[in-house]
Design a protein that fits this description.
single chain, 786 residues, alpha/beta, Barwin-like endoglucanases, Rossmann fold, Dimethylsulfoxide Reductase, domain 2, 3 domains, 6-stranded mixed barrel, 6-stranded mixed sheet, 34 helices, binds ligand MGD, binds molybdenum atom, iron-sulfur, 4 iron, 4 sulfur cluster binding, metal-binding, MopB_CT_YdeP, molybdenum
């Protein structure tokens, strides 16, 4: 049985459940933010730092990938962006004394919250194979240890992970190092995030990115927000939705949960938002069952085709379909045969509500569909997103103002990292360009994505794990399996800003390489540097930190990668064997940008254009000229199997989500204000009617047990049941506490993304062991420093 210890926080004993909010932001958001931020940074640093977020000449907010418009306000950040900044700009420090005091076993027993609250890492640390704790190590020694381990294995026995905060410059240099070393083993957080979007959009439209810009949102007549909780995860998007709404757009929310931000928004950056009742955002809320979206968009397609039959020539955009698309007839045939019963079963929606949405669509000249993790982390995520494309193509809602696809990215540069070649399946044209520019033969065989990397580590096929950012151990599924896989490595190396579980659960040898964050001054041999990032709408712009680094020992990601490369591969000398001038490139990031310009399409005149205050937008064929670089040369309609997620009787479909006080595995605090949760995270939200059926009650203490075809029982112990208005048959609980429940092999078709939003579970009365573990945990854990 796979059970993760409930690394609870002592505060969980103070857990309280109140009523959920019906609006997002407003004055409480401002007050709460300032309190959390000032605890980390002090008053003066808070003011100086927050004024530079997302400003020209300032730094890009590390919070999310939502773009900032040209007419940005003086305070272009949000509550959760401020919290993300405070985590990085905190005055707390993890020093060598800290590691002297805490053994590995000690660190492994701490919660994510506790680890994150200790502050910024300050110097390189090494844990040797027989040691029980980390000791200080010099940079050169750290590079030597890593290079030796990499030389001792075949290139495909090493894995190089990236999280989406890494800048374009660091990402480009990193993938270059990895391919120069000889592997495409470049898994990244995107594999667990928007991989399904990328897969579906590349196949159907030819570009795996969104096709809209901010201006399109302001021109849209209908915006459908599906599977996304922007009030918490993309708060600045609410400002854009509010503006779209004022310009006349209708907004429809499709979600199993009535998320506060989608209902009503009080913009904290306006007086009206601070003291008024705010703007109602969603005109319509469809409370869909988990995984029901494919059926919903199929039904909308059917309604449009039927309307066209009633009003020939008035509904579909025939000219667009004939000129720009492929596969319409096969799609239309499939759609006409879709039974309503299946649609209603899959969505859990009343037919009238689906038909009413169909009417809205008919009345809207331009439609945008936005989505995030609610769509990408299911078994049939790729078919679902393809179905959204089908729906949009019917009326030519791609490649014209006010219309298109809008996958809303998570990490602030996750999209840019992919553009820079962080990808385990690089296209041949990218490798060709790399080869032409640098004069070496990059490996051509595909590498491991995140799930395959864990399998390979588990099976002893990987010796070295290297991560630039992120928290691999805790962000990935099947925690018990992943932790064992990590411990199976000879060496694990983490380039990080803050302590997390991946520093506590390691290979036999382990290194921590502390790095600069976005907010900090980055000085290299040729002077002060800036980096660049790409947002969710393909805008590339500069980010320049101004704060003094958390410690003089920190090195930038670029400099760490170059230092390791130099140690591993040598530096270029005339007629020498090494074709890349690693340290010369790292001395001035303009030099890296020049190389990017010659390898990656769309970056012409990179160094000049990125110095413009707003940066520049990357080209996008479908958006700019209705050019679709797909296999058929056209936008592809697809025929998708209508997959209905069914669970055995007495079970629920569980989704694993973010609370308001977390950034993925970084826990800022223990509240989830909009959902009424205070001082605790081990809660499971269930519809009250389902509780009656299951013989449970609000307030019960249960274990969550996941049921999967491999027969392994996975258990997350000790959750308080909360009666909550989620869709029937569905439940929700926070990640990463519930990652132990997600089977490694339960992944999405095509994209191989873990199915974190549809885990079949049952609730069982909490075991005595769970209750005991909770008590023991309380006595062992220490509170966060104040
Ligand atoms: N403050 C903060 N900001 C963040 C993050 C964070 O942790 N904290 N994380 C960043 C990252 S990496 C990402 S990827 C994004 C994530 O942004 P979101 O995708 O908004 O994050 P989740 O909490 O996973 O929320 C998923 C939403 O989809 C809904 N949903 C789940 N399943 C379904 C379904 O089958 N159908 C439909 N229609 N809806 C469904 C859920 O009810 C929930 O509202 O946010 C980014 N921004
Ligand atoms: N069950 C479940 N699992 C999920 C999800 C889910 O919805 N449910 N969501 C998935 C998604 S969408 C994502 S994107 C992944 C996230 O996976 P990751 O990106 O791996 O995880 P994070 O928690 O964002 O990583 C946080 C760590 O990054 C480091 N860090 C922060 N800033 C920097 C920096 O500037 N440089 C460097 N080098 N390090 C930095 C800090 O040490 C911090 O502890 O999790 C996935 N896992
Ligand atoms: Mo993400």
């Amino acid at each position: 049985m796979a059970t993760a210890a409930p690394r609870n926080d002592p505060a969980d004993e103070n857990l309280s459940v109140g009523s959920a909010k019906t609006y997002a932001a407003g004055a409480p958001a401002v007050a709460k933010t300032m309190r959390l931020v000032e605890q980390q940074m002090g008053v003066k640093r808070t003011a100086l730092t927050l004024l530079r977020v997302n400003q020209p000449g300032g730094f890009d907010c590390p919070g999310c990938a939502w773009p900032e418009g040209p007419d940005r306000g003086h305070l272009e950040f949000c509550e959760n962006g401020a919290k993300a900044v405070a985590q990085e700009a905190t005055l707390r420090r993890v020093t060598r004394a800290f590691f002297e005091e805490h053994t590995m076993a000690d660190l492994a027993a701490k919660s994510d919250y506790w680890l994150g609250q200790q502050g910024r890492l300050t110097e390189p640390m090494y844990k040797a194979r027989d040691d029980d704790r980390y000791r200080p190590v010099s940079w050169s020694e750290a590079f030597r240890i890593t290079a030796d381990a990499l030389r001792a294995c075949a290139p495909d026995e090493a894995v190089f992970y990236t999280s989406g905060r890494t800048s374009n410059e660091a990402a480009f240099l990193y993938q270059l190092l990895v391919r120069r070393y000889g592997t495409n083993n470049l898994p990244d957080c995107s594999n667990m995030c928007h991989e399904s979007s990328g897969s579906a959009l590349s196949e159907t439209l030819g570009v795996g990115k969104g096709s809209v810009s901010l201006d399109d949102l302001y021109r849209a007549e209908l915006i459908i927000v599906v599977g996304q909780n922007p009030g918490t995860n993309h708060p600045r998007m609410l400002v854009a939705l509010e503006r779209a709404k004022r310009a006349g757009a209708r907004i429809v929310a499709v979600n199993p949960l009535p998320e506060a931000g989608l209902i009503r928004f009080k913009n904290p950056q306006t007086v009206r938002g601070l003291i008024g009742s705010g703007t109602p955002l969603a005109d319509e809320f469809l409370q869909i069952r988990l995984g029901g979206d494919l059926a919903l968009f199929r039904a909308l397609g059917r309604l449009l085709l039927e309307a066209e039959e009633r009003m020939p020539g008035q509904v579909l955009d025939r000219a667009f379909i004939d000129t720009y698309t492929h596969g319409f007839d096969a799609y239309a045939k499939e759609v006409r045969e879709t039974p309503w019963e299946t649609v209603l079963e899959a969505t859990g929606l009343p037919r009238e509500q689906v038909e009413a949405l169909g009417e809205r669509v008919l009345g809207a000249k331009s439609v945008i569909v936005c989505w995030a993790m609610g769509l990408t982390q299911h078994r049939h995520s790729v078919p679902t997103i393809r179905e959204i494309v089908n729906f949009l193509l019917l009326r030519g809602n791609v490649g014209r103002p006010g219309a298109g696809v809008c996958p809303v990215r998570g990490h602030s540069n996750v999209q840019g990292d992919r553009t820079m070649g962080i990808y385990e399946k690089p296209p041949a044209r990218f490798l060709d360009a790399l080869e032409a520019e640098f004069g070496f033969e990059p490996p051509r065989a595909p590498g491991y994505d995140t799930v395959d990397a864990i399998r390979a580590m588990r099976d002893g096929k990987v010796r070295v794990f290297f991560a630039v950012g992120g928290n691999f151990v805790n962000a990935t599924p099947d925690t018990a399996v992943t932790e064992a896989a990590m411990r199976n490595c000879a060496l694990t190396v983490q380039v990080s800003t803050k302590l997390n579980r991946s520093h506590a659960v390691t290979g036999r040898d382990a290194l921590i390489l502390p790095t600069l964050g976005r907010t900090e001054r980055d000085v290299q041999e040729c002077g002060e540097q800036f980096v660049t990032v790409e947002d969710s709408m393909s805008m590339v712009h500069a980010s320049r930190g101004r704060l003094e680094p958390a410690s003089p020992q920190l090195r930038s990601e670029v400099s760490i990668i170059a230092g390791l490369a130099r140690q591993l591969l040598g530096e270029r000398v005339a007629d020498g064997p090494e074709p890349v001038e690693w340290e010369w490139l790292a001395a001035h990031y303009d030099r890296i940008r020049d190389r990017i310009e010659r390898v990656v399409p769309g970056f012409a005149d990179f160094n000049a254009r990125v110095r413009e205050p707003q940066g520049f937008q990357l080209p996008h064929g479908p958006r700019d000229s209705r050019t679709f670089p797909t296999a058929t040369g056209k936008a592809n309609f697809t025929v998708n199997e209508l997959d209905v997620l069914r669970v055995p009787e007495g079970h629920l479909l569980l989704q694993t989500i973010r609370s308001h006080d977390q950034y993925n595995t970084t826990i800022y605090g223990l509240d989830d204000r909009y959902r009424g949760i205070r001082q605790g995270r081990r809660v499971v939200f269930v519809n009250p009617a389902d509780l009656v059926v299951l013989g449970c009650a609000d307030g019960d203490l249960v274990d969550l047990v996941s049921v999967w075809r491999d027969g392994v029982e996975r258990r997350a112990p000790g959750f308080r049941v909360v009666g909550y208005p989620t869709a029937r048959g569905c439940a929700a609980a926070y990640f990463p506490e519930t990652n132990v429940l997600v089977p490694l092999d339960s992944t999405a078709q095509v994209s191989n993304t873990p199915t974190s939003k549809s885990v079949v579970v049952r609730l069982v009365p909490a075991t005595a062991a769970a209750a005991a573990a909770r008590t023991a945990e309380r006595t062992h854990s220490q509170g966060a420093p104040s």
